[in-house]
Amino acid sequence: MTEKFKILAKFIKDASSETADVETYLFVKEMIPKYHLNIDINSKAIKNKLIEVNTTLKFEDKEANEKKSYFEIVFTTIIKVNDAVKDKKELEKVILCDVPTKIYPELEISFLNLMHNSGHPNIKLEKKVDFEKLYNDRFN
Fold first, then answer.
1. Sheet containing 50-60, strands listed edge to edge, beginning at the edge strand earlier in sequence
2. How many CA atoms does the CB half-sphere of 98 hold within 13 Å?
3. How many Cα atoms occupy the beta-carbon half-sphere of 4 within 13 Å?
4. Residue 47 is part of which domain span?
């Protein structure tokens, strides 16, 4: 089976780690197990079957705490879609499932480096993200 897309470039478009002060850092160090990882994927057509796919990881506290840190990374992948991909559903699956699955190992390393460099060396992402399952769950 031929690839439905080719990755032309990939890079970190934006990375952010925000901790207001030392008190916040110490508080977050205790509370970080309660933080949640959110994933967002959006895309933008460029031209000639070129698409910019932005995969965003946010790690944040959903509780209403005064003291919290915010961590986010936006990983951009520029792809060229194969001419054989004609169907809108097929293209959607490429953008929301195939591309993130392919780039996720690199994105995860970049994100963990951000977390570790932000003073949280013990952070690990416990479970691997199953983009196929997330994609399929959207329609059920």
1. 5-18, 70-81, 50-60, 36-45
2. 16
3. 16
4. 5-137
- The count of structural domains within the chain is 1
**How many helices (H) and strands (E) would you count in the chain?**
4, 4
State the CATH number of the domain containing residue 98: 3.10.420.10
Residues 13-30 have pLDDT tens digits of: 999 999 999 999 999 999
Query: Does residue 60 contact residue 35 with C-beta atoms inside 8 Å?
Result: yes
* Segment 71-112, tens digit of pLDDT: 999 999 999 999 888 888 899 999 999 999 999 999 999 999
Q: How far apart are CA 127 and CA 137, in angstroms?
A: 17
Measured in whole angstroms, how far is the alpha carbon of residue 22 from the centre of its chain?
27
Reduced to 3 states (helix: H, G, I; strand: E, B; else coil), residue 4 is coil
